[in-house]
Structure formats: C-alpha cells, structure tokens
Specification:
about 290 residues; mainly alpha; two-stranded antiparallel sheet; about 70% helix; 10 helices
Length: about 290
Amino acid sequence: MTLGFFACALGLTVLVAAPAFVALSFGAAACCLITVRGRRAWGLIGGLVPLVVLVAAMNPLFNTEGATVLFAYGDGRPYTAEALILGIAMGATLAAALLWFASLNAVLTSDKATFLFGSAAPALTTVLTLVMRLVPGYGRRATEVFRARRALGRDAGEPESLAEKVRAGATVLGALTGWALDHGVVTADSMAARGFGSGKRTSYRSYRFTGRDDAVVAVAVVLLMAIGAGVLAGAVPLGYTPADAIAAGVAPSPLAVGVLVAYGAFLLLPAALNLGGEVRWRCSLSNI
C-alpha cells in the first residue's frame, strides 16, 4: 500500500504540471516528510528552495516563448513571464519529486523492501538491501574513525597543507575499506550459513491488512478515480507550456476546483495519518 501510494504520488506530480497542482504536491510532500522525519526535514526542504529559484531563472534563458516580455538580453532575446512561470513549475515539480523520494526512503526500510520483493527477486532485493544499509553504515564508521584519531591526538586541528589533507583522508579511507572488506566476508559467511540460494526464499510476515487499512485504500482509490475522471474530462492539463501561463490567472472551472480538492486530499493522506497517530500517541501518554 505504501509503495503504491508513493508511485501514484510521483506519477501525478510529474504528469499534472499545472501550477496550482505542482504547488499542492510540493506542500503535501513537505508535510509528509516533516511528519516522517521531524525537524530534520526542514534542512532538505530549505535546500530545495534555491533549486527551484535556479531552474525558474534559467528556463527563460533557453525557452523564449511567451507574449509578456519582461526584458531583453544578449542580442535581443526576450525574457518572458510565461517562461518564468514554466520554470517555477518545472523547479517545483523536481523539488516535489525529490521530497516524495526522501519520504519513500524514510518509510520503505530494508526489511520492508525484503518483504515486498524478496520472493520475486531475491538476489536483486539482497543487493538493494545491502546498498541501502551501506551508506548509513559508512557514515557511522567514518565518524568512529575520526573520533578515534582525535582521541589519539591525530587530526586535532585543521590540516595546514594539501598533502596533510590527502594523508588524513587516505588514512580514513583505508580504515573504511578494511572494515568494508571484513564486513563483506562476515556477511557472506552469514548468508552461506543461513542457506541463501539453496531454495525459495521466505520472509517473516509481520505486516497484515486491517479494517483501517481497507478504509484508507478505499478512500485513496475513490480520490484517484475522481482525479482520473477530471483529467479525462479535460479539466486539468497533463502538460504545461508557456502559452498556458496566460490562462493561469483565469478563474478555474468548478470541475477543476473539485479535481484540485481531490488531488490535495489524496496527497495529504499520509501526513494526515501520521499526524493522527502522533495525536493518539500524545493522548495516550497524557493518560499514563
């Protein structure tokens, strides 16, 4: 269910490129990431703002379509408002997609990936699981190496020359490489001891559908059907061109407003569920 939602959210974010829908997708993705990662999410959200600004500013330099010329540059090439709005939409779409991927990475842990794809593609699932655990493990191990070197009096201050920086980095890289090789041998021995590849893979099934899950899936399907009906009826454009920016300020039709409401309700489902769970948890703590 979780993987299906994020696949639909990413697909809608990329396909439905109207400005209001893109802004709503970005806001919903930010809310989802905040409810999943807490205050740590603000760093990524703030870091994506310059990306949106950069894409918006660069797009009119390559796309000169549009009727509203803000100024001319170079050999008289127009810098149009329509292309600028298109750039904002493109940058926000990219930022929203990155936020959805960040939420998916935080929610779809290695054990859940193994549960989903372990039986269908055991070798690929094992590789993906090891890769997902490799980066955090390297980060923790690098921190331990740096702390150990400081405790021994090494790297007490900033390296003064490039050669010292290279030597310090090579020492840390050598320690990480040795740890990775040793960890790889231990992992291979553990897999061999557990009979990996000797038969069909099984997984511990600790996940099951409840009545609450069925209700959430039903609501999500109804909202997706409403969005699809609006798209098929032509109320929402799948693409967005500079020419469409002229009509961006025109009052939308009631059908388009209804599709926008359904779109927002669908994308805000995980944030609402996470927030409801947090409220119930705090209420249970207050009753202790």
